Recover the amino acids of this structure.
């Protein structure tokens, strides 16, 4: 039976590079182009090996990897994290649950490194998590601009996490792509419980129609900035504020802010 691989990366050409490399080694390859698609692809698992980019839109690679580990906690499989900013992210990778980290570089050098890694894994070389390998295609140094962008992103995340109420980001198909720790606390859920799930599924059935109406209202009425409604979340009275998420003038989804009304 063919070994199965999942490749998750928002770079189409890199996905095709890995697909060809893996198929030449006899793998059956499933492709996904962001973390959200990757979570959907996990439903077709388990896989023998997973390649995941660390920085992706919607759901990032670290979140994806953590969810994959928990979904297949009883299955032995390898996760290889790849990124063009592995060096700049080194401090953040301590808690990442990948077996190996590969810095993106020239495809020729990466092909040799990945084939050598797969040779070792396929020969039963043991879990690479024990050694926590970092593979670099040549000498790579931290880049100031990339480091500054990552610092800015981390600062923005810290600001959002520090807000006193929960924030849930919902994609255009009404599926959750992000949630702050406070939102998870109110919902009494883990990221794996809610990411890529329909926003209405997080609330009791009797509340769902009201939430759908709120999502429609802010999407269909240009002058309507927000809609507030009271619902029950995990047996707690909760106030939701629903607003539209726009990127470059286009509708990208919704922001749902939540706070308990009786603590």
């Amino acid at each position: 039976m063919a070994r199965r691989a999942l490749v998750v990366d928002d770079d189409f050409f890199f996905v095709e590079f890995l697909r060809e490399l893996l198929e030449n080694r006899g793998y059956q390859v499933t492709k996904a182009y962001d973390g959200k698609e990757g979570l959907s692809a996990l439903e077709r698992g388990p896989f023998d090996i997973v390649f995941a980019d660390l920085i992706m839109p919607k759901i990032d690679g670290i979140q994806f990897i953590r969810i994959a580990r928990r979904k297949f906690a009883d299955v032995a499989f390898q996760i290889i994290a790849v990124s063009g900013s592995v060096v700049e992210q080194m401090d953040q990778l301590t808690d990442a649950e990948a077996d190996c980290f590969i810095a993106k570089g020239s495809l020729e050098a990466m092909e040799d490194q990945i084939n050598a890694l797969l040779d070792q894994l396929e020969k039963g070389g043991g879990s690479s998590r024990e050694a926590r390998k970092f593979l670099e295609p040549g000498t790579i140094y931290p880049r100031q601009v990339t480091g500054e962008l990552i610092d800015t992103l981390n600062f923005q995340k810290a600001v959002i996490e520090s807000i006193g109420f929960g924030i849930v980001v919902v994609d255009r198909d009404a599926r959750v792509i992000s949630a702050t720790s406070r939102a998870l606390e109110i919902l009494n859920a883990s990221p794996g419980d809610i990411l890529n799930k329909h926003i209405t599924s997080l609330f009791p059935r009797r509340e769902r129609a009201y939430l759908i109406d709120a999502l429609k209202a802010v999407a269909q009425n240009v002058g309507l900035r927000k809609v507030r409604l009271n619902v029950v979340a995990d047996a707690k009275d909760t106030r939701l504020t629903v607003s539209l998420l726009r990127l470059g003038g286009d509708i990208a989804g919704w922001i749902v802010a939540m706070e308990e009304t009786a603590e």
Observations:
- The radius of gyration is 20 Å.
- The mean pLDDT is 86.
